[in-house]
Sequence to fold (337 residues):
Amino acid sequence: MRDGRIGNYRIITAIGEGGMGAVYRVEHAMLGRPAAVKVLLPEFSRNQEMVNRFFNEARATAGLRHPNIIDVFDFGYCDDGAAFIVMELLQGESLKARLQRVGRLPWNQAVYFARQVAVALGAAHRAGVIHRDLKPDNVFLVPDEEGRGERVKVLDFGIAKLAADTSGAGVVKTRAGVIMGTPTYMSPQQCRGAGEVDHRTDIYSLGCMLFEMVCGRPPFVGEGVGELLSAHMSQPPPSPRSFEPSIPAELEATIMRTLAKSEHERHGSMEELIAELDGFVHRTSQQISVVTQPPHMYPTVVQSNTTLSGSAGQSLAGQSLTGQQAAPAPASGRRTG
Fold:
């Protein structure tokens, strides 16, 4: 990053920093177009596996031109050897920040956001891309250009996998016994380090997010990573209505179906889930309340792909696991759901 430049972009200001790198607001030197650049620190850019995963995010996202998915414009290496990705500059806040600020959302607003996420991931699945790390950190809320509320943008396809079958029906094969994802939102199949993970893993993660939006907490909480993984694999999720009685019983049933232990008992596709969510959108004439606030520039810090190390009892549940060993199966040896 010599002379305040990253490739063809001038650095305007730093947006955020993390243990692996930083995000900058930049401007194209010739076009004047604003953008955001995510940069890996040079020491991490020398790790080819980490760079491959970093550039995988760029490739996976760049092929998904969709209004609910962040745009990626370019990627490469700086003069000092640091890897970078150039992406759309967003104004708004992450879903995580929103939930931290307001606690829980009205159920109709939660459905409004969840439906947009489902539409984005449905498009990704049809293109053969499975996200595998869906969480509130990776969902951004921006003002709708037409003034009709807020638009969702799905971010960080850093550990996404490209299915061989681009029809969307294919499965992704990973090395058995290795898990990738964020423990609070990982499907049972991810927790087990299953050798094949398909699009229904994203349906489970979206169910975890929808549960959190309407209840103010995720379906499973635990002291450490191992406890969370075990809960996803063996414990039935609690009733959303036990935390928020105003949730319609039918919406609770939809959420519980997304959280089925067996992928075969979940919705077969995002389109099927969208059809159910549409029923809740159309059944109420209540105005969707949108919390407004001064916009913030894209604040995502390069940390979503951090490899976890150290004690599993640390506060790691909100971070991504990349290449960690799978949790042991429940003691009973029996899969529920």
